[in-house]
Amino acid sequence: MIITSSVSPALRVGLRFLGMWPNDSYGTIYWLSFTLSLLIMQYFQYLYVLDHLKMSELSNLVDGLIVTLDYSLMLFKITSLWVHRRVFHKILADMDNDWRECINIDEHLYMMTIKANMSHLISNALLSFNAIVAVLYLLGDYVIHSVFLTTDYNDTLRQLPIKIYLPFETQQSPTFEFLVATLILHVTINSCIIAILNGLILTLILHVSGQIDIMCHEIRNVSNNKSTLLRESTLPLFGMLIERHNKIIAFSKNIESLFSFIALMQVVWNTLVICCLGFVIIISIHNETGIFVFVKTISGYFVIMIEAFVFCFAGEYLSLKGKLIANAIYETIWYDMPSGQNKIIIFIIMRSQKRLTITAGKMMDMSFETFTSMMKASASYVSVLNAMY
Fold this sequence. Notes:
InterPro entries: 7tm6_olfct_rcpt (IPR004117). This protein is mainly alpha-helical.
């Protein structure tokens, strides 16, 4: 099958579910429905948090905060996407234009197809991983109860998959079974939406990196043909390179506008969730059910780390690819060019000096250095907790 879009079918379905796809007749209804379900869940989750806000219930409080904060982060994300939906639609339109331009040039199409295959593979892998981990995390408590079943355990002690306070009786059948199935489905969908947003930013970054590869390829073609390079008739070729460069810069700025606030919330909320997970990990080490709680918590920890890593990787990868343009231009035989072309080369190099990146609220760059700082902070927190426990 010939690929004609960087957005995978699974990613497209997820974006339609969120109501973010352009020209979708029921997009607003989809977004409002999902947002309303998140708000309802948040209300009952924070009721549980307030009800267990005491030292004697610290373990349950922290365990409940993990999923509660994750839901809060999702609410911030989809709200930010909805506010910037016009920017997102502009990005999708630019991507379609890029594919139409490269469809008739085999070399360009080949480079874009490679990036599209990578984005499709990554999106599908993230969706599968998040769905599996969500189910394992939700079923963790039931596995623990089944293994460590005691004589005083009965149906009245049945727990819901997540910590939530409901103002009505939940233990009787079939109400309990219905709530369990509903909560598992909702949390799994929420986890898949997280994977969709992570897959989206990687898809956009891989798309713009494909455009950068095409531009570098064209620069090398111009540079290798010395007889053509020395003629004034090459000015239109440089004009096309400048136009492509402008499109790359504009596309990168749109990605930054779309994900800047989301990245900021990602850093703040991930730090809070990592602290909660660290607390649960330390408790599980000194508990008889520790191995099961530990596995359950570690699975959630990996999802959080992957989510943070995706944004940091996207920012780092975009910055590295942006530097390739300046390197490719500098490697041309600019010293043999006419003076008019030399000036064009200088301007392209100067514009390439401005780093392409994704920031967290315009305050810090999302990079491997940021990810390392988050890892160090979480490791230090767990170490201190382990020493104090």
